[in-house]
Amino acid sequence: MKKTLLLLLLLLSLVTITACNKEETEVPVDDPLKVQKEILYNEAELAFNFFWEQTNHQEGSPGYGLSRDRYPGNATIASVASVGFSLASIPAGVENGWITEAEGQERAQKTLENLLTLERTNGFYYHFLNMSTGLRAWNSEVSIIDTGLMIAGALVVAEYFGGTVKDLANTIYDGVDWTWYVNDSNNMFYMGYKPEDGFGGAWDHISEQMILYVLAAGSDTYPTDDSLYKTVKSRVKVNYYGTYESTTTGEIVGPYYYTHDGSLFQHQFSHAFIDFRDIIDYQGTDWFTNATMATRANYLYTQDYADRYVTYSETSWGISASDGPNEYRAYGAQTAKSNSHNGTIAPYAAVASVNYLEYESLMAVQNFYDDSRLIGEYGLKDAYNLGPVDSFYNPTIAAITPWYDSDYLGIDKGISLLMIENYRSELIWTYFMQNENVRQGLINLGFLNVE
Questions:
Q1: pTM
Q2: How far apart are CA 425 and CA 37, in angstroms?
Q3: 402: how many CB neighbours lie within 10 A of its CB?
Q4: Full set of structural domains in the chain with CATH
Q5: Given 6, 193, 218, 221, which residue has the most CB atoms within 10 angstroms?
Q6: Total H helices, total E strands in the chain
Q7: Residue 80 and residue 86: Cα distance in Å, rounded?
Q8: How far apart are CA 180 and CA 14, in angstroms?
Q9: Cis peptide leading into 255, omega within 30 of 0?
């Protein structure tokens, strides 16, 4: 009887400890941003559901593990980058109790196994694939950036689960011949390759491709040196935001390295995996601070144009690549080489900025969730545009707004989820940065303070 009582007391203690630990991971009751953070974490769970439910998990399917490019549109199309975000989402699902560890490990392993059966060119995957057949879709290019983002997600699950999952991820990574994608004439990565047309374009500016230099420099099989990174960095100029007459706040931000389009995703995709917070490159550049300044400039730009577009406000900001009223476009703000905007806001861009501008991001999330037309089964939809303040300012957009997107985009749900999880627990950063190839890649590029 005494033994039974002691056992019951022990079990009760364990339950109490578990409950206390769970409470510690929740938002404290006295947190002034408690409501906003709870909305943010709800968005993360719904984003995870997108990947868990809109990924092909049919046993025996040639497209197993392929994740939708968008939903509900393009029902048969997956994107390789979306697969990378889907893989990286799995540890977040396990740690938050949305799925079990066994479920996550099974999905990760079977996805990587199937990826090894798909067509590749020197290790690189096609950008878009048929969800069911796994074959090339839309005459799409053999994509270096989409392959890179897929590998980044694979390395996250490799470190999280280890064992067979890690072996499979390493096999995919080792199969990529990074040197093949280099244009020797200018010492830069080409932007794309099609069997019918050959190589085209160039990654001649700092953008979302930062992760490619790290993966390539850290490769065990086909490594590149540090010259690709140094070449592209030497071509990019720094500038300020706040020196323009249109700036209403008078705030000067910079100097910082700006991107071609001024789109926020270009300061997010690589940063969702690489923890730039405590490392600097060979010239002392702090890319986390750089991204923070670029995000601040993007935010201020929407304030400066709030008198022209109804969508722009202190709680409705985030200009980035997204759907728009008449097309998908890399919308962007100044400072940029070439920016384009028409009042379209991509909520994911503000959500994924929570590690840079915490308060502004959380206020935006609450505002977005207050508009039921932006919310659906997987949380925030991709974009919206309420039109110009004066229809004469942009009559083309005025004629087709207010406009609300009907789709969710895989890469945009993915960057939201990963950045939210980094904000909450640093989970993605932790596992990606513990990979020895990633660390070696950063060291080979000349980054300092890499542990």
A1: 0.93
A2: 13
A3: 14
A4: 57-185 (no CATH), 237-432 (1.50.10.140)
A5: 218
A6: 15, 16
A7: 10
A8: 56
A9: yes
